[in-house]
Amino acid sequence: MHHKLSKWPQCMRQHLSWTFPLASQRPANLFEKPVRMVLGSLLFPKRSCRVIRAGFGLTRPNIPLHCSRSCTTTPWSSQAYFSPSGQLVAKHRKLHPTNAERTIWGRGDGRDVFVVDTGFAKVGGLICFEHSMDLNRYALATLGEQIHIAAWPAINATHADPNAGDFDHYSSTLAQAHAISAQTYVIVVQGRISREIVDRLDVPAGPDAPVVGGGMTGFIAPNGKWLSEPHRDDEAIIYADLDLGIIPFAKFFTDGAGHYARPDVFSFGIDRRSQEPLTNQSIGEIAPLVARWQS
Question: What is d(CA 137, CA 148) in angstroms, rounded to the nearest whole number?
Answer without folding.
Answer: 10
